[in-house]
């Protein structure tokens, strides 16, 4: 029996998030482990009159690629990949894995080669998203592997997933529209026109210049689940140090990450687990050691850490920095084959200042009104 939540999610993604129109070309890339959502999206795309191109992959394909590919093969970007991201109107990316740990033994240098190889692809992707010529939507589909990472059974993880994606099952579009208005108010009241961000938290004291940069409202138009406000800081501005509460993954899990910045660049990096791999990642290309994104998570439906970056960066009460590529639509200019989100919890004594005004404390925005959504 089909899960009606899958149908509702597909409808939200096609008709609200992407707003597909007849004749528009849509590229959907997904693992076969996400088959129920792939099927529902494919039908909704056809019903919208758009023109789908479905690129499915075996869930084992990334592991097999890095396990057996030569350097030449790893550095090769197939021409159809560039054609699709350069010319299509919309791109849907579904993450659905049967094994989230199968790259733990892969040579880190292979990951670095791939990061270098995809720089032009990433530049094209971020540029077209930024200028509005490519609409992008990314999601995760619940699998046993994702549930295990979250230390939950599949049924419980599905409940968490759909609560985060569809907080109002009766009117999901109305919910995200209201949520969008609330986040717009946060930006207008607390962040618009500011010049400096200062983050203070346990083992964290970091400043960022945001002069001339635009904060963006992430409201289920590009990610599902969603809920964050974000920008790209001035590329040479980061000064200080930061400790990240949660483990991060970029092919394998890295925990206890601490970074030190001078003039926008990582000058020291340590980790309690897989520090060698951390060094490979941040030195994968010239832009990988600079910050491409600063963001604050706002989704109260994500109530626990899941070891999935798309989920965890949205947790209300957290902030994240992404090393690597910045967002042109926010004013970012950093280029890299990497865009890697690192997340820290602010609910235990964290504060954020904007131009020396306290705007966020212990995981809560300090709005001048009642703050209701």
Explain this structure.
The protein has helices at 4-17, 35-47, 61-68, 71-75, 79-87, 108-117, 119-131, 144-149, 154-165, 172-191, 275-282, 309-312; strands spanning 25-31, 51-57, 90-95, 135-140, 196-201, 204-209, 216-218, 223-224, 228-231, 239-243, 248-249, 253-254, 258-262, 265-270, 291-297, 318-324, 339-345, 351-354, 357-361, 364-365. It is of the alpha+beta class. The protein folds into two domains: 4-165, Thermophilic metalloprotease-like (3-Layer(aba) Sandwich), CATH 3.40.1830; 178-365, no CATH class. A hairpin with a 2-residue loop joins strand 18 and strand 19 (357-361). It is globular, with a radius of gyration of 20 Å. The two termini are 35 Å apart.
Short structural description:
The chain is α+β, with helices and mostly antiparallel strands and 373 residues long. It is built from 12 helices and 20 strands. Strand 11 (248-249) and strand 12 form a beta hairpin.
């Amino acid at each position: 029996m089909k899960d009606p939540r899958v149908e509702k999610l597909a409808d939200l993604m096609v008709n609200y998030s992407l707003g597909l129109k007849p004749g528009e070309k849509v590229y959907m890339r997904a693992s076969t482990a996400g088959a129920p959502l792939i099927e529902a999206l494919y039908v909704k795309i056809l019903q919208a009159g758009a023109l789908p191109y479905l690129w499915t992959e075996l869930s084992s394909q990334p592991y097999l690629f890095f396990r057996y590919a030569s350097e030449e093969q790893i550095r090769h970007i197939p021409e159809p990949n560039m054609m699709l991201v350069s010319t299509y109107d919309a791109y849907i990316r579904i993450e659905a894995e049967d094994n989230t740990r199968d790259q733990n033994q892969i040579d880190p240098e292979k990951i670095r080669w791939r990061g270098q190889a995809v720089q032009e692809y990433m530049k094209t992707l971020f540029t077209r998203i930024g200028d509005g010529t490519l609409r992008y939507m990314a999601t995760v589909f619940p699998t046993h592997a994702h549930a295990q990472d979250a230390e939950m059974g599949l049924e419980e993880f599905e409940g968490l997933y759909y609560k985060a994606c569809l907080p109002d099952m009766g009117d999901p579009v109305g919910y995200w529209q209201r949520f969008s208005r609330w986040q717009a108010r946060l930006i207008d009241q607390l962040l618009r026109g500011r010049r400096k961000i200062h983050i203070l938290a346990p083992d964290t004291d970091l400043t960022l210049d945001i002069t001339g940069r635009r904060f963006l409202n992430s409201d289920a138009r590009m990610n599902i689940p969603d809920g964050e406000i974000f920008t790209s800081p001035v590329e040479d501005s980061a000064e200080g140090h930061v400790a990240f509460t949660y483990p991060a993954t970029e092919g394998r899990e890295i925990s206890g990450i601490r970074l030190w910045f001078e003039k926008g660049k990582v000058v020291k990096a340590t980790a309690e687990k897989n520090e060698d791999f951390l060094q490979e990642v941040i030195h994968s290309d010239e832009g990988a050691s600079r910050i491409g994104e600063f963001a604050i998570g706002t989704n109260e439906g994500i109530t626990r850490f899941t070891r999935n970056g798309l989920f965890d960066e949205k947790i209300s009460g957290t902030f994240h920095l992404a090393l690597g590529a910045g967002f042109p639509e926010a004013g970012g200019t950093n280029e890299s084959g990497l865009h890697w989100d690192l997340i820290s919890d602010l609910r235990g004594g964290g504060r954020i200042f904007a131009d020396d005004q306290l705007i966020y404390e212990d995981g809560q925005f300090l709005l001048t009104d009642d703050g209701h959504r």
